[in-house]
Design a protein that fits this description.
Strand content: 15-25%
Number of domains: 3
Number of helices: 15
Largest sheet: 10 strands, mixed
Shape: elongated
Length: 483
């Protein structure tokens, strides 16, 4: 049986967070009543002329610089001609052979190994409208009619195209996670895949391992989450593998990812560049940024995710996996830094963030920013645990309450009686009860079985509702049982 190697490239479409659309003054905002954020320019009425959005061009250059791409001294807009209901002009203003950025790379880490994924291009275009197919599944084949919403038509859209350097579904996931974090750090997009501001298509082919030739490429669309991309790529590589083993001939096509069924379905034959009859946009001048503009944008680049992870590891002593989780988003990284600025130990704060706090965020469906929990809550929690005022179990309860209500941690501790019992005189009677009720484990400990001491401490914690200081309870038990 032939051993195959997957060849994967990702095309990511990034809606930019500009105030207005790419070539007109219509507001660039998500949602709204259909067809209320349009004008004669973005609808392509005769006699209208596009005016390029300078901020969108700057944002595209920022993305290219962050990916170490070469900024073109001269780039052009082209008309990409095709007919589809979501295209009000029947062509899309895009870029073809002279994009704003070319080359570059993005480093990703998978299973402790760093892989460098080459970049092909970073180009700027306008988005299309949104087609809605009424029905149970939203598929065109099951709808009796289609509705068009042109609010999105004309929104500035950057296409970031990787080289086919990705080899596994796990690498595809890691690449998209790293690119999303980079775009968020740059502040050019809100990168919300659920709202379509970050979309990803995957090009997948297989070839015999070691072969320099590419196999037949299949493009996958309709993947609306990072998890979907990984699943779709995994399914498609296996589908192609089975087809090749069976002697079937693969065709170049576009396939639709069905999230519910977990399969790709044939959508249409794949178009080639010449199908779009590209030609230079006659109504727009070339983009010719001078060196001063490019250098200013390069200097103004913020700290990028990879550098932030290294800093968190070196300055705060976080483990690489922990740094990857906390430093992976601007929101979480900023939260940790605020907690540390309030005097909390960074590693302890990161432990709470990646553990209990992350679980509360997942369960609630809210973002950290939208939750009532603020950096002061976590700083107080870390301090009270370090001081021995509350136990870890009590801290978990306090965190849950603070996340739900926004109340101060010290107020919660007082109201719920979560303060840890550390006073020896207050613990004596409870220890006596535990010793009297557990003669067997007591004799085992006195016989040399150290491990049963943990059981006895657990009984103390149970009797006090988790309020006893476990270290003090252990010390006192050992003292009494050894005397």
């Amino acid at each position: 049986m032939t051993e195959y190697e997957a060849v994967i490239g990702l095309e990511c479409h990034v809606e930019l967070s500009t105030r207005t659309k790419m070539f007109c003054g219509c507001p660039n905002e998500f949602g709204g009543e259909p067809n209320t954020r349009t004008c004669p320019i973005c609808l392509g009425h005769p006699g209208t002329l596009p005016v390029p959005n300078r901020q969108a061009i700057e944002y595209t250059m920022r993305i290219a610089l962050a990916l170490d791409s070469e900024i073109a001294s001269r780039s052009l807009f082209h008309r990409k001609n095709y007919f589809y209901p979501d295209m009000p002009k029947n062509y899309q203003i895009s870029q073809y052979d002279l994009p704003i950025g070319a080359g570059g790379h993005l480093d990703v880490e998978v299973d402790g190994e760093v892989r460098r994924i080459g970049m092909n291009r970073v180009h700027l275009e306008e988005d299309t409208g949104k087609t809605i197919h009424p029905g149970t599944t939203g598929r065109i084949s099951e709808a009796e009619y289609a509705l068009e919403d042109f609010n999105r038509a004309g929104v500035p859209l950057v296409e970031v195209v990787s080289e086919p350097d990705i080899r596994t579904p796990e690498e595809a996931r890691a690449y998209l996670q790293e690119l999303r974090a980079l775009l968020e750090a740059l502040g050019v997009s809100d990168v919300r895949m659920e709202e379509g501001s970050l979309r990803c298509d995957a090009n997948v082919s297989l070839r015999p391992a070691g072969s320099p030739e590419y196999g037949t490429k299949v493009e996958i669309k309709n993947m609306n989450s990072i998890r979907s991309v990984e699943r779709a790529v995994r399914y498609e590589t296996e589908r192609q593998r089975q087809a090749l083993d069976a002697g079937e001939t693969l065709v170049q096509e576009t396939r639709h990812w069905d999230e519910g069924e977990g399969v790709t379905l044939s959508l249409r034959s794949k178009e080639y560049a010449f199908d779009y009859r590209y030609f230079p946009e006659p109504d727009l001048n070339p983009i010719e940024p001078d060196r001063e503009w490019i250098d200013r944008l390069r200097v103004d680049l913020p700290e990028l995710p990879a550098a932030r992870r290294r800093r968190f590891e070196e300055r705060y002593g976080l483990e690489p996996a922990q740094a990857r989780l906390v430093a992976g988003s601007v929101e979480w990284a900023g939260f940790l830094e605020e907690v540390v600025a309030l005097g909390a130990d960074a590693r302890s704060a990161a432990n709470w963030m990646t553990g209990d706090l992350a679980a509360h965020i997942r369960e609630s469906g809210d973002s950290l920013e939208a939750s009532p929990l603020k950096p002061q809550h976590l700083a107080d929690l870390v301090r009270l645990v370090a001081e021995g005022t509350i136990s870890t179990a009590g801290a978990k309860q306090a965190l849950a309450d603070a996340f739900a209500s926004g109340k101060g941690v010290e107020q919660i501790v007082e109201e719920r009686g979560l303060a840890q019992i550390s006073d020896a005189s207050a613990l004596v009677s409870i220890l006596n009860e535990v010793i009297a009720e557990n003669p067997g484990p007591v004799e085992q400990f006195r016989g040399g079985k150290e491990g049963v001491l943990g059981f006895l401490v657990g009984q103390v914690m149970k009797k006090t509702g988790g309020a006893a200081n476990p270290q003090e309870a252990q010390r006192l038990l050992r003292q009494r049982l050894s005397s």
